[in-house]
């Protein structure tokens, strides 16, 4: 919340002080709660806004979570459950912001293992260089391995972008395509789609990287099928595409 980009959030909170107090009071009195279980503030007028729709509750909770005042403490189905953060976060030492930034940077570097710094690859002192199981799996677009698109391209030569906001005629691959990881190599990408009405996981396309060998995808598809709750996969077996 210290960043300039969040100035609008601070101003929005200042303009909605009473609504903020209402949300925190309801969580204190009745939490944990779903967002829809927190009644709107008595004097709070709804408005149809292109960002947050007719109800600002979601926006308020997101901002309060970013400030560390509330937290997501569970789920009911696909809905997040909210409560006061102080009930769930342990007591901890308070550190100055520059120290916190340094600790965050160190943690991020350690989790990545290597990073590109001014054109040079740097390995974290605790990074382990050893054999990697020759397992095939699909990566989320937000997996830390590919989250930094520039790092991914520099490290593996794998150009990856989500094309959901690209017009269909201009897409190189598909709407929501997942990288395929084999061992320690990104060998291709796949576009699976879950048809909720028919409970079917369909594969719309598979693309292999130049020089990469096509591999069986039955096992990772079965894992994805179970994860999303599909009853079957179509097609049932894929080796190339």
DSSP summary, beta strand count: 10
Question: What percentage of residues falls in helices of 4 or more residues?
Answer: 25-40%
The major sheet is characterized as: 5 strands, mixed
Taking all Cα atoms into account, the compactness measure Rg is 23 Å
Spell out the helices and strands N to C: HHEHEEHEEEHEEEHE
What does this structure look like?
With 241 residues, this protein is α+β, with helices and mostly antiparallel strands. Helix content is 28%, strand content 22%. The chain has helices spanning 7-15, 17-30, 57-66, 97-112, 149-156, 218-228, and strands spanning 33-34, 70-76, 79-84, 114-117, 120-123, 136-138, 178-182, 185-195, 200-208, 232-234. A five-stranded mixed beta sheet has the order 6-7-8-9-10. The chain has a three-stranded antiparallel beta sheet with strand order 1-3-2. Strands 4-5 form a two-stranded antiparallel ribbon. Strand 4 (114-117) and strand 5 (120-123) form a beta hairpin. Mean pLDDT is 87; it is low at 1-5.
Short description:
By secondary structure, the protein is α+β, with helices and mostly antiparallel strands. The protein has helices at residues 7-15, 17-30, 57-66, 97-112, 149-156, 218-228, and strands at residues 33-34, 70-76, 79-84, 114-117, 120-123, 136-138, 178-182, 185-195, 200-208, 232-234.
């Amino acid at each position: 919340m210290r960043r300039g980009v969040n100035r609008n959030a601070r101003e929005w909170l200042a303009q909605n002080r009473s609504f903020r107090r209402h949300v925190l009071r309801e969580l204190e009195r009745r939490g944990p709660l779903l967002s829809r279980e927190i009644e709107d503030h008595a004097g709070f007028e709804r408005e149809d806004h292109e960002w947050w729709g007719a109800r600002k509750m979601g926006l308020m909770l997101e901002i309060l979570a970013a400030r560390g005042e509330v937290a997501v403490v569970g789920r009911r189905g696909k809905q997040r459950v909210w409560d006061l953060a102080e009930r769930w976060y342990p007591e901890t030492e308070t550190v100055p912001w520059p120290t916190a930034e340094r600790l965050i940077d160190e943690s991020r570097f350690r989790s990545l293992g290597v990073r590109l710094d001014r054109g040079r690859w740097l390995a974290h002192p605790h990074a382990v260089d050893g054999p990697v199981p020759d397992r095939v799996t699909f990566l989320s677009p937000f997996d830390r391995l590919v989250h930094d698109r520039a790092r991914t391209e520099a490290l593996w030569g794998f150009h990856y972008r989500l094309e959901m906001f690209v017009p269909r005629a201009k897409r190189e691959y598909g709407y929501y395509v997942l990288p395929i990881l084999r061992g320690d190599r990104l060998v291709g990408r796949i576009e699976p789609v879950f048809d909720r009405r028919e409970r079917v996981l369909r594969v719309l396309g598979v693309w292999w990287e130049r020089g990469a060998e096509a591999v069986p995808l039955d096992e990772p598809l079965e894992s994805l099928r179970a994860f999303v709750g599909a009853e079957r996969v179509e097609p049932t077996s894929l080796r190339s595409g």
